[in-house]
Amino acid sequence: MQSAKQTIYSLIDTLPPSQLSEVASFITFIKMRDENKLFKDMEALSMSSTDFWDNEIDDEVWNDV
């Protein structure tokens, strides 16, 4: 049984050169989508940690710094 990567390579080998840029664009889209999801997950985690610091006591202390 072929791995998914081997199957993709085999399919790419059958494509005409004119369609290879479309495949490359799709792969780039998938990578960017995954990186964007990771960024959004990290952003959500950092936002949840800022709630701890969002209080009147800390705000007053840092106002004069």
Polypeptide structure, described:
With 65 residues, this protein is mainly α. Helices cover 82% and strands 0% of the residues. It contains three helices and no strands. The chain is rod-shaped, with a radius of gyration of 23 Å. The protein starts with a helix and ends with a helix. The mean pLDDT is 87.
Bin the strand percentage: under 5%
Structural class, by secondary structure, is mainly alpha
Radius of gyration: 23 Å
Unreliable sequence segments: none
Distance between the ends: 65 Å
The tally of helices reads: 3
| Major sheet details | none
Say how many strands there are.
Answer: 0
- Measured as a percent range, the helix fraction is over 70%
- What global shape is seen? rod-shaped
The overall average pLDDT, rounded, is 87
H/E element order? HHH
Characteristic key phrases:
single chain, 65 residues, mainly alpha, rod-shaped
